[in-house]
Specification:
single chain; mainly beta; 6-stranded antiparallel β-sheet; 12 strands; 40% strand
Length: 205
């Protein structure tokens, strides 16, 4: 086998060595414009422009809201197999969100500090969108005492367009009194450092 190392004919040299431009070696001008594969662990310095990174799954917007307002209700959600309605329970708070681009995925995560006054009831938090009457997502828990509980609700939505969306959080139980916010049985707790945290993250689809 003959290998010709000819600086004047690098194409022939690469061919003799079995090297392929864009896979094994950089393009002759060294710009990397024709490079199709590169092990990122071999990058010793420099930066990669964000435009060169995959767009799908990239976070394009994040919005967070914390509400410590104390509230309570005796309004109920039926403890049955029907979808919670916007007329049931009580509205606690609303959050307005404007998507960046139609088709993107929007993930809403809610952590709610709650409590009850009854020994054993089903506590419900329900997320509604705009004027829709059916709940988009529901979380519930059966309490076995009147102590505090933390409810977590996660919902994935899809942006139809870039119009503002209003998400509404409602709460209640099958009976008795349900409390939400930085309180326990109508008594304030921990200087409003607990309450309801609402995080909204939008991902490029």
């Amino acid at each position: 086998m003959t290998i010709r190392l000819n600086p004047a004919d690098l194409s022939q040299t690469r061919s003799d060595l079995g090297l392929t431009v864009g896979t094994d070696v950089l393009a002759p001008n060294g710009s990397g414009a024709n490079l199709t594969a590169l092990n990122a662990s071999n990058l010793g310095s420099g930066t990669v422009p964000s435009a060169r990174l995959p767009a799908v799954g990239k976070v394009v917007k994040f919005q967070n809201t914390f509400v410590a307002t104390d509230a309570s209700t005796t309004s109920t959600f039926p403890d049955d197999d029907t979808i919670p309605q916007s007329s049931e329970g009580a509205e606690y708070t609303t959050v307005a969100y404007t998507p960046v681009e139609a088709g993107n995925k929007i993930v809403i995560q809610i952590n709610a500090q709650m409590a009850t006054s009854n020994a054993e009831i089903v506590v419900v938090v329900a997320l509604f969108k705009n004027s829709e009457t059916d709940a988009a997502k529901v979380a519930w828990e059966e309490t076995h005492g009147n102590g505090p509980i933390v409810m977590t609700l996660i919902h994935e939505d899809t942006a139809a367009d870039t119009s503002e969306i209003t998400y509404k959080l409602r709460f209640g139980g099958q009976s008795g009194t349900v409390y939400i916010g930085s309180q326990h049985h109508s008594g304030a707790r921990y200087g409003d450092r607990s309450g309801v945290q609402i995080n909204i993250t939008e991902y490029d689809a």
